[in-house]
Amino acid sequence: MATLFSERPPASFLIAQAVGITASTYLLGTNASLSFISVPALMMAPAPLAARQWKKVFDTGKTIGISLSIVSALSTAYVAYHQDTSSLPFKLNLAATILFPSIVPFTIFVIGPINDKLMEKAQSLASSSLEDKGVEAGVTSSETVNALLDKWATRNLARAAITGLGAIFALWAALDKREAVGASGFGFATGGNRIS
Predict the structure, then answer these.
(1) 6: pLDDT confidence band, cut at 50, 70 and 90?
(2) For residues 89 and 179, is the Cβ–Cβ distance under 8 A?
(3) Rounded to two decimals, what is the model's pTM?
(4) Can you tell me which family this protein belongs to (predicted)?
(5) Residue 66's closest CA among 95, 37, 23?
(6) Which site among 55, 106, 132, 168 is 20 to 30 Å from 88 CA-CA?
(7) Does position 189 have pLDDT exceeding 70, yes or no?
(8) pLDDT at res. 118
């Protein structure tokens, strides 16, 4: 059995591994920072400003998120295609390949209704004065901009977790070398040369 340690994998394989891991961890960090950093800051702003700022964050993040999930999935798919289908790295890369684009339907069906409500808020409050504290008077507490932002941030953390799991799988697959190490020719000896 040949060892991976004595035979260097093709550059395209290594590049695909690096791109898949880098893109997916960047996507994980982006999604997590939206929930932990951006949304709490937005919630400190008056409702009209918070809704407009959220729309800007959403518009920017949408392009980045879709692109990174596609790049991550294509990279791990390429790596999996070049691996033994019975190996753990293949299974981990296949799982990552499925997980990365799964954030798109998750976004559409789980986060989408909140996105729609926040978009409506951004449009309806666009001409409102920032000083108008009664701009959301009569709105149920669960439908205020802050409540919607809080729901969005929580569901976005689930999206980050999906990406994070895929990133862990891709990294684990890259670090798992058990399938590549041959045991033939390894043995114990006596005397000064104990390992041959």
Answers:
(1) low
(2) yes
(3) 0.83
(4) Belongs to the anthrone oxygenase family.
(5) 23
(6) 106
(7) no
(8) 98
Distance CA 157, CA 103 (A): 11
The pair phi, psi for residue 44, each rounded to 5°, is -85, -15
- Spatial separation of the C-alpha atoms in residues 107 and 29, rounded to whole Å: 17
The half-sphere exposure of 77 on its side-chain side, counting CA atoms within 13 A, is 11
Other Cβ atoms within 10 Å of 20 Cβ, number? 31
Domain ranges of the chain: 11-129+142-177
Alpha carbon 21 to chain centroid, angstroms: 10
Give tens-digit pLDDT for 84-97.
Answer: 999 999 999 999 99
DSSP bridge pairs for 161: none
CA distance 136 to 128: 10
Phi (first) and psi of residue 144, to 5 degrees: -75, 165
**One-letter amino acid of 91:** K
pLDDT on residue 132? 75
Letter for the amino acid at 84? D
